[in-house]
Design goal:
Layout lengths: L1 H8 L6 H15 L7 E5 L6 E5 L4 H18 L17 H15 L3 H12 L4 E3 L5 E4 L6 E4 L2 E2 L4 H7 L2 H10 L7 E4 L2 H11 L3 E5 L9 E4 L2 H11 L6 E5 L5 E7 L2 E8 L3
Antiparallel strand pairs: 1-2, 3-4, 4-5, 5-6, 7-10, 8-9, 8-10, 11-12
GO cellular component, one term: cytoplasm
Organism: marine metagenome
Protein name: ATP-grasp domain-containing protein
């Protein structure tokens, strides 16, 4: 990087492909990626280059490359630009960068999948993202294993079915003697208000079969808040769950072969 900056500052100059390489890497870093590698080579034709740079997520890397190209185009004198904007178009770099960062955040793995990928990299196990969500392949050929979030081919189907059912999970934990909040299923704000008054405020409302905290409302203390929470929850499911509110912290724990592998503290907002 020092040599790159020196060539720019001292008039020695460098290839535009080299500039694009560094800008694409820097944009990814601004979006939260830990990437540093890049190489640029000439093709023998003036102004045509082979540019290679690393990425953590392919589509984010491609988007960073496109934004780097667009930015460089706008910084060049108009007679040197190979791509010109129409009269009704404008280029707002701050807005484009915000869009790239938001896109990168949407493409990030969840904490559980990210911890599995990190562990694979530490063991030099190759991995490949197979879709836009959390389906990941570890290894190749007959040794490959596929993981969807934290579900693998070794995960028992019945365990997944039970843990995806909030009512059944609540019942099993209660039967085992574990402390659980009072819970009931509701389908209307009127019914939710009636149950909340019987349970006692504050309460929690969440979609019956939701996940990742979507549609969850905490610390509800009056009828108006319950009506808003029900509207939010029923956007994600036909039935909602109302529970007594228990203060504390929310942690997501990843257990592999009976051993705790990773813990993520979930913070609202």
């Amino acid at each position: 990087e020092g040599g790159f900056l020196r060539r720019l500052r001292e008039g020695e100059g460098t290839w535009m492909g080299h500039v694009l390489e560094h800008v694409a890497i820097e944009l990814q870093q601004l979006a939260g990626a830990n990437v540093t590698f890049g190489k640029t080579r000439g093709t023998g034709d003036e102004g045509v280059y082979h540019v290679v740079y690393s990425y953590e997520e392919e589509r984010v890397g491609l988007a960073a490359g496109q934004l780097a190209f667009n930015l460089i185009q706008q910084l060049l004198p108009e007679d040197l630009r190979t791509q010109k904007l129409d009269a009704d178009q404008r280029f707002d770099f701050s807005e484009e960068l915000d869009d790239l960062i938001a896109f990168a955040q949407r493409r990030q793995f969840g904490p559980s999948t990210a911890s599995l990928v990190k562990a694979a990299e530490a063991r030099d196990i190759p991995w490949l993202r197979l879709n836009d969500y959390s389906l990941v392949q570890f290894g190749h050929g007959k040794h490959q294993q596929r993981v969807q979030a934290t579900i693998t081919s070794q995960t028992r189907h019945i365990a997944v079915e039970i843990s995806s059912d909030k009512e059944e999970t609540h019942k099993i934990l209660a039967d085992l003697g574990l402390p659980v909040p009072r819970q009931e299923l509701v389908r209307s704000p009127k019914r939710a208000i009636s149950i909340a008054e019987r349970m006692g405020y504050p309460v929690v409302i969440k979609p019956y079969n939701g996940n990742h905290g979507r549609g969850v409302s905490l610390n509800l203390r009056n009828d108006a808040q319950i009506e808003e929470a029900m509207e939010r929850a029923l956007q994600h499911a036909r039935t909602a769950v109302i529970e007594t509110m228990i203060d504390g912290f929310d942690h997501r724990m990843l257990v592999i072969n009976g051993e705790l592998a990773a813990v993520a503290k979930r913070v609202p907002g």
